[in-house]
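Question (not urgent): is this output format expected?
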Amino acid sequence: MAAIATVLVASACSSSSSSDSGSKSSEVLSKDGKGKKITVWLMDDAQKQWNDVVEAAKTQFKAETGADVEIQWQTWSNYTTKLDTAMLSDNAPDAIEIGNTQAAKYIDAESFVDLTSVKSKFDNSDKWLDSLAASGQSADHSKTYAVPYYAGARVMIYRKDLFEAAGVAQAPTTLAELKDALAKVKAANAGTANFSALYLPGKNWYTAVSFGAGSFGVDNVIAKKDGENWTSTLSDAKFVEGISTWNDLQKQFSVGGTTADETDQDALMAKGNIAAIIGNGWEVGSVIDEKNGNPALKDKLATIALPGAAAGDPTPAFLGGSDLAVPANAKNPGLGATFLQIFTNTAQQTALAKHAIPNAKNLVAAYKQADPANVAAGSAAEGKTWFIPNSPMWSGANETALKNALSAIAAGGDPAAELKKAEADVIKGLNG
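Got this back:
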């Protein structure tokens, strides 16, 4: 990755794009598009679910700039390789969608136009979802290179029928209430083999770290920037406290095993011996899928934000999603930025909210109103959320170190000791 970043920096620095932080707004945003056509890369999720939003943005863009838009639909498979090639070419697209966990690599390599000087010209930029906005910024959060597009948040998906049969009439709102509810559900299903009142497999690090963030706080989760280097927060006493809470829950209520992760949890829940899982809101659809799930559970599932220490203060959720950026070597960077400005304006984001969590807190209400099933994920996104260290050096190796530590903890290891071991690998990776 370091080698790629070095080449990308060289390419970006040779670009003629006027994208430095001192650029004037008129240079970063352009409406001089008569007779021109820009190219935009978007994931085919939009084509399948909110193509009307894309078309509305294209129409408004044409009216305001005179330029046409060619959408080139993409898939996540091998997308990083395709992006690497595009960032090195002299024919990059004028605007792109990027996963929020991918953004730091290209930001560090100076492969995106600096949008800091025009951030205030993007609708609701002062209300962007915290973790999604952070993923498009420099490591010190002083500059903006990518615009939040849409988000997904993890929630607790549970069997209403099993909870009600166990005497739990109301959804839990605190960790104490959750533990009490799970104890009742566990007792009521003691005769079911391999039953999990709450499925928490040992290597589901997204869920475990959420509990860590619940005690430690959402800023600087896992690691923090200290000058030019990163230092770990994994062994902080408050973070360890949160991981210990997760560990207690998985020991008492889960038979997920110490070496499994969340990959198969939807299919396992569909089989009927799991009362609750922690997953993305859309996983409800996977659980009840006609081909691979159990459609009979359709009216038996509900979602809530994962309860926290106090009512109204849920456990922080990892916020995934997509950002939008303008490649530094795009032929029409100013038009590309203007298209993103229009594509993420209030009107388009409100329309998108029928399908996904929009990019700003003040628009999440539209998402929750679109479907009662959206309320939990929307509330999670509005609340405290966390994100991985915003470093180009974050990689699968860091995730593996965390997974291995959590697996060891789930198998009986001391949380403080195992996290201390993991932080050496995580920091070594982050600091190259």
